[in-house]
Write a structure and sequence with these properties.
Layout: H1 2-11, H2 30-40, E1 44-47, H3 54-57, H4 61-81, E2 85-91, H5 114-129, E3 133-138, E4 141-142, H6 149-159, E5 162-166, E6 170-171, E7 174-175, H7 176-189, E8 195-198, E9 205-206, H8 207-217, E10 223-227, H9 247-253, H10 260-276
Parallel strand pairs: 1-2, 2-3, 3-8, 4-7, 5-10
Antiparallel strand pairs: 6-9
Helix pairs in contact: 1-7, 2-4, 4-5, 8-10
The protein binds NADP nicotinamide-adenine-dinucleotide phosphate.
NADP nicotinamide-adenine-dinucleotide phosphate binds near residues 1, 50, 51, 67 and 71.
Length: about 280
């Protein structure tokens, strides 16, 4: 997410954005963070840092909670002290996901895994500590950077003849470049409609259909078998249905959100440019 923000900031020639280098912004180290607040005097802070290893979190509860709750509270406290607005990224995994209705910002959050629980605790700390906050929940994040489903599928698709992909978990993918654009639009709008917001790309899909889209666009020849979640047990359970309602963010900030497949095409194009560079 952070790398996508940097790319979009460069594209917009936004020189006022500061991206801390590795090692100077450990969110668990409040003194270190305070030095950054003092030197940079931010009007806004965008927190992309998180413990995101969903399965590992089940056995690594303490560190996961430190990063996703205590680290987030450190940032919120400093934002309060130094009069900055916080944009904090959260997740669809705060929801239990057994329903079939679009999930709204004020729907009850009942996480079913440690990652989701600690992300919810982080949200709650932000709300308790700082009025000037945007909590943006997103889902199925991918881009040309880091490790993600799209890059994993392209790798496995090139290496294997056949893949089994879960077809009964339903959600909406999010191209992190689109989310970065939305975050900067929200900040640039100058509005102060603080609160929780939902953002993903438009449209609904399963992991199976998402994979089929990836292979179709990249013209990868691989047999893909749809399987139920029960055939691919993971350490952490995941919501079955986590499609979020984006009406609030679209209306409040006049945002137009791209369809997931349109954005997937853009990401795969960017990946092929990077791979051929
Ligand atoms: N990925 C998804 O599908 C997804 C879905 C919904 C919501 N989200 C949320 O979106 C946000 C961005 O996720 P992402 O996919 O970009 O995650 P990511 O690729 O795992 O990036 C998280 C970053 O946080 C850093 N970090 C971890 N502990 C830190 C600490 N103590 N201090 C400072 N930085 C620390 C990590 O650094 P190291 O690599 O050095 O540890 C990493 O660069 C997160 O809030 C995540 O919960 C993600």
């Amino acid at each position: 997410m952070g790398q996508c923000l940097r790319k979009v900031a460069e594209r917009r020639a936004l020189n006022s954005l500061y991206f801390p280098e590795e090692g100077v912004a450990n969110i668990l180290d409040k003194e270190m963070l305070e030095e950054l607040f003092k030197s940079e005097e931010p009007t806004h802070v965008i927190n992309c840092a998180a413990y995101t290893a969903v399965d590992k979190a089940e056995d690594d509860v303490e560190l996961c909670r430190k990063v996703n709750k205590d680290g987030v509270a450190n940032i919120a406290e400093l934002c309060k002290l130094y009069d900055a607005t916080l944009v904090h990224i959260s997740t669809d995994f705060v929801f239990e996901g057994s329903g079939h209705e679009l999930l709204k910002e004020d729907d009850i959050a009942e996480p079913i895994n440690i990652y989701g629980l600690t992300k919810l605790e982080g949200e709650q700390d932000v709300i308790a500590l700082l009025a000037e906050h945007y909590i943006i929940r997103t889902s199925w994040l991918y881009s040309e950077y880091g490790n993600n489903f799209v890059k994993a599928m392209l790798k496995f698709g090139a290496e294997r003849d056949e893949l089994n992909i879960i077809a009964d978990q339903i959600g909406s993918p999010t191209y992190a470049i689109d989310l970065a654009e939305a975050i900067l639009d929200i900040i640039e709008s100058g509005k102060t409609d603080y609160g929780i917001y939902h953002y993903s790309n438009e449209g609904v899909t399963s992991w199976y259909d998402f994979a089929m889209g990836i292979f179709d666009i990249s013209q990868t020849q691989v047999k893909v078998n749809p399987i139920p979640t029960s055939h691919y047990p993971t350490r952490a359970v995941r919501p079955k249905f986590s499609v979020m309602d984006k009406t609030k963010i679209k209306k409040n900030f006049d945002l137009s959100i791209p369809y997931w497949r349109t954005s997937l095409e853009k990401c795969i194009e960017q990946l092929s440019i990077l791979n051929n560079a």
